[in-house]
Amino acid sequence: MNDDQLDLVFGALADRTRRGILARLAETDANVGDLTALFTMSQPAISKHLKVLEQAGLISRNRQGTMRLSHLQAEPLKHATGWLVDYRTYWSESYDRLDELFASLNNTNKEQ
Amino acid sequence: MNDDQLDLVFGALADRTRRGILARLAETDANVGDLTALFTMSQPAISKHLKVLEQAGLISRNRQGTMRLSHLQAEPLKHATGWLVDYRTYWSESYDRLDELFASLNNTNKEQ
DNA sequence: CCCATCCATAACCTTGTGGTTATCTATAAC
DNA sequence: GTTATAGATAACCACAAGGTTATGGATGGG
Q1: Strand D surroundings (CB within 7 A)
Q2: What are A71-104's pLDDT values in tens digits?
């Protein structure tokens, strides 16, 4: 994953509304109206966020009748994770297994 | 890790100069002059980037004589990773062991 | 004390971002 | 063909972001 893509992906993730959209899409696909109902902002604002997510490759969209369904595309999240875990040797602890890592992350997330 | 912190961390990572600074600090601590020499921009610009990184908790700084050394603080990267891996069930493949994940990531990163 | 060095800060500029309202387009239903 | 609905687009606004140059403040050395 190159610098341009990382700019787009991390930039897309740097907004809590967009992270909220991704969380919602992790459940099921959704149309623009569904997503607009979740946030206290206008439909065009949501459409803009969806465009940002699409350009980052984090969602795909296809027409379903008069609606456009957004679908989570998690692959760039995997690559962003790959970038981040390169720094794991600088974390305070190291983990051999993913489940150990996740257990630790859950703890530290709750602690804060 | 709450939304405000995620805003700051992902926002800090959304700039390639700041990612470059983190990569440099992964080797050794560095002062502002060292970092300015690495990029084609002015010293105040680097100082601004360092402030962003510091507010995101990604670096700490302490005076060493007349210099201020920046030191990588990777803990927020761990927490950001924790947020990202929550989406691992939506990746195209799943991995039980970190080394499997890393191997895959190295491959896909090289492929692109 | 004076001076050089390292860095921060201030002021400014341009562009991007996140929101709004108003309007246009596309699809489906009748 | 008309109409209703879903969503995109345009025009606009306020402010944040990323850069610049100029200058100020802190530290160490002679």
Answers
A1: A 31-34, 43-44, 47-48, 50-51, 61, 66-68; B 11, 14-15, 17, 40-42, 44-45, 48-49, 52, 63, 65-66
A2: 999 999 988 988 998 888 887 666 655 566 666 6
Select from B16, B87, B93 the residue whose CB has the most chain A CBs within 10 Å, as the one to mutate to test that interface.
B87
pTM: 0.87
Q: Can you tell me whether residue B93 is helix, strand or coil? A: coil
Distance of CA A85 to the CA centre of its chain: 17
How many residues in chain A? Answer: 112
Would you place residue B29 in the very low, low, confident or very high pLDDT band (cuts 50, 70, 90)?
Answer: very high
Which DSSP helix (H) or strand (E) runs through B80?
Answer: helix B75-85
Nucleotide nearest to A52 (CA to C1'): C17
**CA atom of B109 to C1′ atom of D12, Å:** 41
Mean pLDDT calculated for residue range B68-77:
94
Query: What are the residues facing B61 on neighbouring strands?
Result: B70
pLDDT, tens digit, 9 for 90 and up, residues B73-102? 999 998 898 899 888 888 766 665 556 666
> Is A98:B85 a contact under the CB 8 Å cutoff?
yes
Amino acid at B28: T
Contacting residues for A66 by C-beta, under 8 A, at least 6 apart: none
Q: Does A77 touch chain B (CB under 8 A)?
A: yes
Instruction: Supply the pLDDT for residue B1.
Output: 84
In whole angstroms, give the CA distance from residue B20 to residue B64: 23
